[in-house]
Design brief:
Layout lengths: L24 H33 L1 E2 L11 E2 L3 H7 L2 H34 L2 H16 L2 H11 L6 H8 L13 H28 L4 H9 L4 H29 L3 H8 L4 H4 L2 H11 L3 H31 L1
Antiparallel strand pairs: 1-2
Helix pairs in contact: 1-13, 2-13, 3-4, 3-7, 3-9, 4-7, 5-10, 7-9, 8-9, 9-13, 12-13
GO cellular component, one term: plasma membrane
Family: Belongs to the binding-protein-dependent transport system permease family.
Membrane topology: Multi-pass membrane protein
């Protein structure tokens, strides 16, 4: 008597390539629903002021507007005017040069401070971290006033110390000369930017695998080689983000320059874009031209942000 072979259990149909289990429609829309409140806040807080600034830059303000007359619509004439003004290009080049110097010094010194924090003992590490926190927590205006007094012509500590070492710095004015003015401004901006960079890089250094560093040391790699071939590749994403943030912060620097100019700096020779737009709008009552400079400054910042984000995305895809 022949026996029938057992029936094979029915096999479930395999989904086609690229097709996964379907998600409910509500689950797909959940991320967008969660982003909606934050997006609305950004549109209200940032979108409306930018729109108002853009409209202001397309108008013309004159004497009759001071008596209540509505401003005239002139389109892109304000932008044409600032692009034809040589002073604008001088200020733009000055801003970019200062930003580049500040970012390089901030990143290099921040990395050195982070490495020092990693190497010192526990007590010195805590003292260093507390000092950085105090420097970081100080408001820009207060920090600038302190440094202004340090470089004061008559009572400044810097002039006194340099005079003690044989230099003739009695009554020396650091702010009246554009080059020394930018040197003082650079010291203030870098000093305020180092703590954030150092803290972030120090956190990144703690994530570098110790066994990888030990293996490189056993293979004969020196300290410089371990830093270049082991530490830097691990910190590259963090360095990219910190560099982008530093550029954005230093491009729109305002408080330090404005306070130092009030303390004795020559405004025309030391303006950067932020102060230049402010002085045009409120110092010369050219609200339309100042708004146009501010829009150009914002567009430069946005273009750099988009470019840098693309570079970061390409690094992640490699």
């Amino acid at each position: 008597m022949s026996t029938l072979p057992p029936l094979a259990p029915p096999q479930a149909e395999k989904p086609a390539a690229g097709q996964g289990p379907k998600k409910p429609a509500g689950l797909k829309a959940l991320p967008y629903a969660l982003l909606l409140p934050a997006s609305l806040v950004l549109i209200l807080v940032l979108g409306y002021p930018f729109g108002r600034l853009f409209v202001l830059s397309m108008q013309k303000f004159g004497l009759k507007q001071q008596f209540g007359a509505p401003p005239d619509w002139i389109g892109l004439d304000n932008y044409t005017g600032i692009f034809q003004d040589s002073q604008f290009w001088v200020v733009l080049a000055r801003t970019i040069g200062f930003c580049a110097a500040a970012v390089v010094l901030t990143m290099v010194l921040g990395m050195l401070v982070a490495l020092l924090t990693r190497r010192v003992g526990r007590v010195l590490r805590m003292a260093l971290i507390v000092s950085l926190l105090f420097a970081w927590a100080m408001p820009p205006l207060s920090a600038t006033v302190v440094w202004q007094w340090l470089f004061d012509t008559r009572y400044g500590l810097v002039n006194w110390l340099l005079s003690q070492f044989g230099g003739d710095f009695h009554g020396h004015s650091w702010l009246s000369n554009p080059w020394s003015f930018f040197g003082v401004a650079l010291i203030i901006v870098v000093w305020m930017g180092i703590p954030f960079v150092a803290f972030t890089l120090y956190a990144g250094l703690t994530q570098v695998p110790g066994e990888v560093l030990e293996a490189a040391e056993l293979d004969g790699a020196g300290a410089a080689q371990r830093f270049r071939y082991v530490i830097l590749p691990f910190l590259r994403p963090v360095i990219l983000i910190l560099t982008a943030l530093s550029v954005l912060w230093d491009l729109r620097v305002f408080t330090q320059f404005y306070v130092l100019q009030k303390a004795g700096g020559i405004a025309r020779d030391t303006n950067v874009l932020g102060v230049y737009a402010y002085r045009l709008a409120f110092g010369e009552n050219k609200f339309d031209v100042g708004a146009a400079v501010a829009v150009v400054m914002l567009l430069i910042t946005l273009l750099f942000t988009v470019f840098y984000l693309r570079q970061i995305t390409r690094q992640e895809e490699l």
